[in-house]
Amino acid sequence: MKLKDLRCCDKCGGQIALVFHIVEVTQAIVDGAAVNREYGMVQAMGGSVALASIMGVEEDVVKMVPHSTKLILCQECGMSGELNLAELVEKRYDAENEKADKEKSDEND
């Protein structure tokens, strides 16, 4: 992580110390079609999951969304045990968009 990427804690807004936490949040989606194909192969193999995994093409049934969000948490917030990831990700997303909009408006001026 570069010095320019450091920022205050995404939860409390406080300063980070020498030791802090970085939490990377990535959303995942179950691929229903891939699950159906896997179950179809299991049924074709008489219900044997082990045989189906050997005979079939083992594919990922969970797809990862390409964008992830890195949250920075001070030591206290990282250890507090009370984190609302959805709220923190949304707050970080809004901050990133606000920064990008400001950079665009600065370029246009």
Description:
This protein has 109 residues and is α+β, with helices and mostly antiparallel strands. It has one domain (3-108). Helices cover 45% and strands 20% of the residues. The chain has 4 helices and 2 strands, in the order E-H-H-E-H-H. The chain has helices spanning 32-44, 49-55, 75-79, 85-108; strands spanning 21-30, 62-73. It has a two-stranded antiparallel ribbon. Helix 1 crosses helix 2. It is elongated and about 65 Å long. The two termini are 30 Å apart. The model has no long low-confidence stretch (mean pLDDT 90).
Uncertain spans: none
Structural domain count: 1
Shape assignment? elongated
Strand order of the largest sheet: 1-2
Strand content: 15-25%
Helical fraction equals 40-55%
Q: Structural class, from secondary structure content? A: alpha+beta
| Distance separating the two termini | 30 Å
Major β-sheet profile: 2 strands, antiparallel
Radius of gyration: 21 Å
How are helices and strands ordered from N to C?
A: EHHEHH
β-strand number: 2
**How many DSSP H or I helices?**
4
Mean of residue pLDDT values = 90
What is the topology?
Layout: E1 21-30, H1 32-44, H2 49-55, E2 62-73, H3 75-79, H4 85-108
Antiparallel strand pairs: 1-2
Helix pairs in contact: 1-2
Main features:
109 residues, alpha+beta, two-stranded antiparallel sheet
Brief write-up:
This protein has 109 residues and is an alpha+beta fold. It is 45% helix and 20% strand. It has helices at residues 32-44, 49-55, 75-79, 85-108, and strands at residues 21-30, 62-73.
